[in-house]
Amino acid sequence: MKKTILAAGVAALMCGSAQADTLLGLYIGGQMWANEASGSFGEGTDNQTVFDFDDENQGSFYVAFEHPIPLIPNIKIASTTLDTVGGTDISSSFTFDNVTYSANSTLDTTLDASFVDYTLYYEVFDNDLLTFDFGLTARDLDANIEIFEPQTQLQSGLDVSGIIPMAYVNTIIGLPFTGLNVFAEANFISYDDQTIYDAQVGVSYALLDNIAVDFDITLGYRTMKMELNDLDNFYSDLTYDGFFAGAVVHF
Fold it and tell me: What is the pLDDT of residues 62-105, one digit of tens each?
């Protein structure tokens, strides 16, 4: 799916003072996320159907660049895939993309989604004991939803895309002499009957820590909610939850 970079201009909203890194830093990280999807979607607040989705292993990765200039934000670009399939038996009629499915039908669905987060952030603290970042994220969401009724061969589909602005916070607490860190990160926004958040907590362990490169492994839990209200005529109340394992390299 083609993505449009929209991070430019967000820095104007982030004019507070911050303590920046004294050295340039490049972070490359990724994780495998074993999540469970649940919830409903449709074309209206009163026209949604709950689907039973399969559990999936989803991948995500990010690149972040940090610098020592206090007034210029650091940048992070993160990509996540959310593809799943599901089904349901409907007891009343359901309309999706101008196709109406009769009551007592069995529906199959494919929900392919992905997004790229463009984040500009500042470091308030950055040391071995405490790191705290805050900023703004532009989430570039693309999704394709297909519904199929095997008995009648009825089929409908909808392409959804849009930019979701979100607040960003990240903190890391170091545990001295252990090589362990506890971390938490979140993107979130809530307005006009819409709530979107993406949060994770976990621990990391430094397998390699020297002046040239650091290498950490991570383990944690991630939860995501997408309560969307008329994004390209798409309404949803979807939740993804599950444990993840990953790695981070810092140059």
Answer: 999 999 888 999 999 999 999 999 999 999 999 999 999 999 99
Is 95 among the domain residues?
Answer: yes
Q: Is residue 18 part of a domain?
A: no
Instruction: Note the pLDDT tens digit of each residue in 75-85.
Output: 999 999 999 99
**Domain total for the chain?**
1
Whose CA is closest to 124, among 109, 135, 138, 140?
135
pTM of the model as a whole: 0.87
Look up the domain containing 105 and give its range.
24-250
Contacts 24+ apart (CB under 8 A), 233-237: 233/43, 233/158, 234/41, 234/43, 234/143, 234/145, 234/158, 234/160, 235/41, 235/42, 235/43, 235/44, 235/45, 235/47, 235/48, 236/39, 236/40, 236/41, 236/42, 236/48, 237/39, 237/40, 237/41, 237/48
CATH number for 143: 2.40.128.90
Q: What is the rounded distance in angstroms from the CA atom of residue 68 to the CA atom of residue 216?
A: 23
Side-chain-facing half-sphere of 91: CA atoms under 13 Å: 1
Asked if residue 4 is part of any domain, the answer here is no
Tell me the C-alpha distance between 204 and 14, whole Å: 29
Q: Are residues 51 and 41 in contact, defined by beta-carbon separation less than 8 angstroms? A: yes
The answer to the question of residue 8 being in a domain is no
> In the structure encoding, which two tokens stand for residue 70, read together?
């206090």
